[in-house]
Amino acid sequence: MVGDCQFDASIFLFAVLPRKAGIANTFRRSLENSLKDFPEERVKVLDFYGIANSGSDDVDMLNILRFGTDIVFYAPTFTMAKAMSGRALLYHFNEPNPWDGPFKGEPSHILDVAFLLQNFVEHLGAEQQKPSKKFGSDFIDFVNGEKPFDICARAEMPRYMDRLL
Question: Which domain of life is it from (predicted)?
Answer without folding.
Answer: Eukaryota
